[in-house]
Design brief:
heterodimer, A: 410 residues, alpha/beta, Aspartate Aminotransferase, domain 1, Aspartate Aminotransferase, domain 2, 14 helices, 40% helix, B: 153 residues, alpha+beta, Sufe protein. Chain: A, 3-stranded antiparallel beta sheet, globular, binds pyridoxal-5'-phosphate
Chain lengths: 410, 153
């Protein structure tokens, strides 16, 4: 079965608006997804019926709000097949989740000369925290190179693993759509006694996630790209690792006891959740998980794979050599992220012309400047597909590209 | 809603297609400053030769969108052969034009000296209606500003 996109689209109020009398062709879900009514209702329901601070009151509302957030944690845990819900740490976003690991695990465990191995596909969120750690500790950040079609070049993997204590790798590229072999890298990391962190920000919204199948040690993702609200992200980690790590931010909620002499940290997950958490956002993320599970992640994969194939064929047929689509072409190793370079038209100009036709794509370096340098471009125009997109959106993109080509025809 | 023709005026496209004074100058004797637009990845280099107090050569390197490239190209023709003070006046007038608070500024500056003629640069006025593109239009100018500081240090 695949998705009934008309019904799916109807769930997303924003997509049913007009801007300047034109429908919105939203092809920027790689940056953030739209939100279904079900998630918006959950947020409103919390504020209208449950609003109270969590973990701090004996009255009904406080208990109900606490239950709702802890229930969301449980649903998120099930969604990624985590062994225990206490292994789910709520953060602000994926960026904060990676910083949490680099700051606490990294500072406690890395020393001068140790190596953090990352790939050349990474988002700045999975680069800069390691560079900060490396600068502080005298470690090295080492880069896995890419093949010409944007896959990881693992020919020298054994040598690259020398001295490595952490392999931090994205499961899906936000620029090229590439799906690197995460399990292989996790196994390789473990074989040399290193840990493996997976940046699944572009994976979890689109594909079934099973931390046991990845066999990684940490996995991070961000709520707003998976139909959830902004301001909520997730760090999953193996309980024994999380328990051994020092706390991150200090304050309320993360303590068991505080005296004038010092403090005792709370148990996980709360040890890492200092201060009043984003309560509505946790509940909203729980609702997003329900929404995705109701549609079925397998159906979402099938739909997006079919649509990505349609997009690659349509754009290839209509524009041939004039349009470069970076990254792998093989649908088994790529997702629905299309980084485009069209003739000599600068991506910024391209997205401006597309905007006139209601087509929302992102132009720029997509927070992956090292990757842009490898591709030999300063920027690309990126169209990213999600569960509410259909062939008419791809056709609108192609029509708009054609119009841009005419506008800038020199 | 402002249309594409407000943004992409013919003269802008002309400077984009055939940029003036593109290339590099040897440093030293020339001075170079580099500018980045972190939003979109545009990078620009401004090479400047100042002799006496006059800009005797200027070149633009780097890559960017039609707005940043054409604005930099027009900038070179506007300041080449000018004194450093004259160039700074044009720079100020251009940035004023790019300011979203243009009208407020106009009021408070009513008594100030008349702005230098912007000439072809007036074509970029439409960019103000597309706020995300203002940074593209001003990238070359901010970089020129830095290059002037270096050249006169
Ligand atoms: C691969 C990848 N990692 C990390 C992030 C960071 O997500 P956030 O900005 O929500 O922390 C993004 C989002 O842009 C991403 O695409």
């Amino acid at each position: 079965m695949t998705l009934d996109t008309a019904a799916v689209k109807a769930d997303f109020p924003l997509l049913n608006n007009l801007i300047n009398d034109r429908p919105i062709i939203y092809l920027d879900s790689g940056a953030t997804s739209q939100k279904p009514q079900q998630v918006l209702d959950a947020l409103n329901h919390y504020y209208e019926h449950l609003n109270a601070n969590v973990h701090r009151g004996a009255y009904y509302l406080a208990a109900a709000a606490t239950d709702a957030t802890e229930n969301a944690r449980l649903r998120v845990a099930n969604f990624i097949n985590a062994p225990a819900d206490r292994e789910i740490i709520f953060t602000k976003n994926a960026t904060e989740a990676i910083n949490l690991v680099s700051y606490t695990w990294g500072r406690a465990n890395l020393n001068a000369g140790d190596v953090v191995l990352i790939s050349s596909l990474e988002h700045h969120a999975n680069i800069v925290p390691w560079q900060q750690l490396a600068a502080e500790k005298g470690c090295e950040v080492r880069w896995i190179p890419l093949t010409d079609d944007g896959q990881l070049d693992l020919t020298d993997l054994d040598r690259m693993l020398e001295g490595v204590k952490m392999v931090a790798i994205s499961a899906a590229s936000n620029v090229l759509g590439t799906l690197p072999p995460v399990r292989l890298l996790a196994d390789a990391a473990h074989a040399v006694g290193a840990l493996c962190l997976v940046d699944a920000s572009q994976w979890v919204p689109h594909r079934p996630t099973d931390v046991a199948e990845f066999d990684c040690d940490f996995l991070v993702f961000t709520g707003h790209k998976m139909c959830g609200p902004t301001g909520i992200g997730v760090l999953w980690g193996r309980a024994e690792l999380l328990e051994a790590m020092p706390p991150f931010l200090g304050g309320g909620e993360m303590i068991l006891n505080v005296t004038q002499e010092g403090f005792t940290a709370n148990e996980i997950p709360w040890k890492f959740e200092a201060g009043t958490p984003p309560i509505a956002e946790m509940i909203g993320l729980g609702a997003a998980v329900d929404y995705l599970e109701n549609l079925g992640m397998e159906n979402i994969v099938a739909h997006e794979t079919q649509l990505t194939g349609y997009a690659l064929r349509t754009l290839g047929d209509r524009f041939g050599e004039d349009l470069i689509i970076h990254g792998p072409q093989d649908l088994t190793i790529r997702g629905g992220v299309l980084s485009l370079c069209y003739k000599d038209v600068h991506p910024h100009d391209l997205s401006q012309v597309l905007d006139e036709r209601g087509v929302c794509v992102r132009a720029g370096h997509h927070c992956a400047k090292p990757l842009m340098r490898l591709l030999g471009v300063g920027a690309t125009a990126r169209a990213s597909l999600y569960l509410y997109n259909d062939e008419s959106d791809v056709d609108a993109l192609a029509d708009a590209l054609e119009a841009a080509g005419q506008f800038f025809a020199f | 809603m402002p249309g594409l023709e407000d943004l992409y005026r013919e003269i802008i496209l002309d400077h984009y297609r055939s940029p003036r004074n593109r290339g590099e100058l040897e440093t030293p004797p020339a001075h170079m400053a580099e500018g980045f637009n972190p939003l979109c990845g545009d990078e620009i280099k401004v090479f400047l030769t100042v002799e006496g107090n006059t800009i005797t050569d200027i070149r633009i390197g780097g890559q960017g969108c039609s707005i940043s490239q054409s604005s930099a190209s027009m900038m070179t023709t506007a300041v080449l052969g000018k004194t450093v003070e004259e160039a700074r006046q044009v720079l100020h007038a251009f940035k004023e034009m790019m300011s979203i608070h243009e009208h407020e500024l106009d009021d408070t500056n009513a008594d100030a000296a008349p702005a230098p003629q912007l000439g072809d640069l007036e074509a970029l006025r439409g960019v103000v209606k597309f706020p995300v593109r203002i940074k593209c239009a001003t990238l070359g100018w901010n970089t020129l500003d830095q290059a002037l500081v270096e050249a006169t240090a």
